[in-house]
Design a protein that fits this description.
- By secondary structure, this protein is an alpha+beta fold.
- Among the domains are: 107 residues, Chitinase A, domain 3; 91 residues, no CATH class; 98 residues, Chitinase A, domain 3, CATH 3.10.50.
- 47% of the residues lie in helices and 18% in strands.
- It has 24 helices and 21 strands.
- A hairpin with a 2-residue loop joins strand 5 and strand 6.
Length: 654
């Protein structure tokens, strides 16, 4: 199932395989699929493609299942469901963006992005929220308010106090961070915000500017060369802010003890395995995702500052505290910011997909005008709008009095008319500034409509111009339909069919079994001596009167690292600390596994047994989904006709 989803959904902008001789490799319900289409998908989903008969046959079976499901989705009308049509249209717009820019202007933006990647800025901001489609009166009110806040700062009030105080910033985080966003580089903020931050001098407050969130002013606190990126690891002791002080102090002591072990020759990786509370890194020697310049990962400022403060690879910090607990951070490898040539390919891709690429659209529209022999007819056409647009215009669905066929401009011999522009106005403009000038508003909207119309026309031709674009749109189309029909016919169906699940469990109960398990208390000890102390306590006359907390506290009197307790039913095949052990009911002798010492007090030995439905429901649901899928595929094979041209299939790679 997962391979089929990858087949449909994993999409990368790559050059489409185009062949002059492009024979049909398969038909489904007489719909042709060419050799190049199949080969493109095959290469995209195989890092090491093989062209022997067995490999091609195996992949063709996956491809046939995939195409059967898409064909059924189309037959059932999934491609006309409004929600899915909107989703596909949204993806199509995103895919089109890289093709709707002037590539000659991209270089300037790429160089700008590199400079900003190599240099960080630290800024604070104040936000006054206003929607993009706000009425002019609301927009003016927001602007006046941000100007008033800026004036307070210029008159001597602290920026942080204005941001976090009454009537200040409407960014919710300002209450805790005083508007301070820390250091950032290119692509980490919306482009207008980034642009203003880099174009404002250190120590200065910007003029108000607008993003999709509203109006901002920025105070630039610092600019510095970027610190590069970091590969690191940590030993983590959990202690969330808000916990009782004695619990935090206990965690602090534990972290200090671990640090002491490190300082006395302990191996970082072994201490991670023994003591770290981070489940995501404990089995990876404490390694964390790379963070810093050019990465998508950002750590807490205290963590980043400590990590970048380490002088050399292989060295580590003393415990540092964050809101989550205590960290001992090891610097595995520091990477400086790469040079421009090394970063150029990734920057080009990011710029092309980023909102900053819209800057190039104006010049691109100019080129399209020449290509499609644009003729401007707007001078006379706009006159009607200057004279007739008022509040009643937006309430007139028929737009009475307009000459619907009168052209405003002609593009590639196609007329774009007064009525087209009037409908754009009614759909896209929200209100008229009372008492204001109509003409500037009309002119502004006309420019937007003209640009949108020209780009829209070019977008409609992209599939014919660019095979790579056409292939990507097809893959998104198929992936969306596949996900939706699989949800309806398999995944959700299985989860909702309680009766079917129970019947499937009853018919296949031998597949859903418990291994042998121990219902036990397990004490994980850091030395044999500690394990023997635990064993002595558990076998003493006073053991029955002591609870687990008492035992752990007694053993951990001088160190929080001495022992850790687990309680539950432990599978002998899946729980590493009992695997391979022949334990008995009662307190068992000290035993060693992988250099760690354990004491087990077994309450009951549970023999292998079939799982009840409630115990096996997750596994039953997964298997039942597989069963439903196979039964459904049998129906699809009978319903849809597939013909594979084996001579074409086996010619791949030749």
């Amino acid at each position: 199932m997962k391979r089929l989803l990858v087949l449909a959904i994993t999409l990368v902008l790559t050059q489409t395989v185009v062949a002059q001789d492009d024979p049909v490799i398969m038909t489904i319900d007489n719909k042709e699929i060419t050799k190049s289409e199949f080969l493109q998908i095959y290469l995209k989903n195989n890092d090491d493609p093989k062209y022997d008969k067995a490999s091609l046959d195996e992949y063709m079976e996956l491809f046939k299942k995939f195409k059967l499901k898409v064909a059924e989705a189309e037959a059932m009308g999934y491609d006309t469901i409004p929600k899915l049509v909107r989703e596909l249209n949204g993806y199509t717009k995103q895919l089109a963006n890289p093709y709707l820019v002037d590539s000659t202007k991209i270089e300037e933006l790429v160089e700008e992005a590199y400079y900003r990647t190599a240099n960080e800025v630290r800024a604070s901001h104040i936000l006054v929220q206003v929607t993009q489609n706000a009425l002019p009166a609301d927009t003016l009110a927001a602007y006046n308010r941000i100007m008033a806040l800026r004036k307070r700062v210029l008159n001597g009030e602290e920026f942080a106090a204005v941001a976090s105080g009454p009537g200040g910033s409407e960014d919710p985080s300002a209450k805790t961070n005083n508007g301070d966003l820390g250091y950032f580089t290119a692509f980490q903020m919306v482009y207008p915000f980034e642009d203003m931050a880099y174009n404002t001098e250190k120590g200065e407050v910007s003029m108000p500017f607008r993003t999709r969130f509203g109006y901002h002013i920025i105070y630039v606190a610092d600019k510095r060369p970027a610190r590069g990126s970091m590969e690191s690891a940590h030993i983590f002791v959990s202690a969330r802010s808000g916990e009782p002080e004695d619990a935090i102090e206990s965690s602090r002591k534990k972290a200090d003890e671990i640090y002491s072990l490190l300082e006395n020759g302990g191996k970082f990786e072994e201490l991670v395995k023994k003591y770290s509370d981070d489940p995501s890194s404990v089995n990876k020697e404490g390694k964390l995702p790379p963070f810093g310049t050019g990465t998508t990962t950002r750590m807490l400022p205290a963590f980043e500052d400590a990590a970048f403060g380490i002088a050399n690879d292989g060295e580590y910090t003393a415990p540092i505290q964050t809101d989550y607990g205590f960290h001992i951070i090891k610097r595995n490898k520091w990477h400086p910011v790469p040079d421009f040539d090394a970063m150029r390919p990734s920057l080009e891709k990011r710029v092309a997909k980023d909102s900053r690429s819209k800057q190039t659209q104006k010049s691109f529209v100019g080129k399209l005008k020449k290509e499609y022999k644009f003729k401007d007819k707007s001078k006379k056409g706009l006159k009607w709008f200057y004279e007739n647009v008022d509040t009643s215009f937006y309430k007139d669905p028929t737009i009475s009095g307009i000459k619907k066929d009168k052209p405003m401009f002609i593009l590639d011999k196609m007329k774009y008319t007064q009525r087209d522009f009037a409908m754009f106005l009614q759909t896209n403009y929200r209100g008229i500034r009372k008492g204001g000038e109509i003409r500037p508003m009309i002119d502004d909207q006309y420019k937007k409509w003209e640009e949108k119309s020209i780009l829209g026309y070019e977008e409609s031709k992209l599939a014919d111009k660019y095979p790579a674009y056409r292939a990507l749109v097809t893959e998104y189309h198929d992936g969306i339909l596949l996900y939706e029909i699989m949800s309806d016919m398999v995944w959700n169906k299985a989860m909702k069919d309680t009766t079917g699940l129970k019947e499937f469990h009853a018919a296949n109960s031998s597949k859903f079994r418990w291994n042998k398990r121990y219902d036990a208390d397990i004490f994980d000890c850091n030395s044999k001596a500690v394990a023997e102390e635990v064993y002595a306590i558990l076998t003493s006359d006073s053991a029955d009167s002591m609870n687990i907390v008492d035992i752990v506290q007694q053993v951990n009197t001088d160190s929080e690292l001495n022992t850790r307790h687990r309680n539950g039913k432990f599978d002998v095949e899946k729980s590493s600390f009992v695997k391979g052990m022949d334990l008995k009911v009662g307190v068992n002798e000290v035993y060693e596994i992988d250099g760690k010492y354990f004491v087990a007090r077994v309450a009951e030995i549970l023999p292998p047994a079939e799982k009840e439905f409630g115990e096996a429901k997750g596994a039953v649901t997964s298997d039942y989904q597989g069963y439903l899928e196979e039964e459904w595929l049998k129906e699809l094979r009978a319903k849809h006709k597939i013909v594979v041209k084996e001579d074409v299939l086996y010619s791949l790679g030749k």
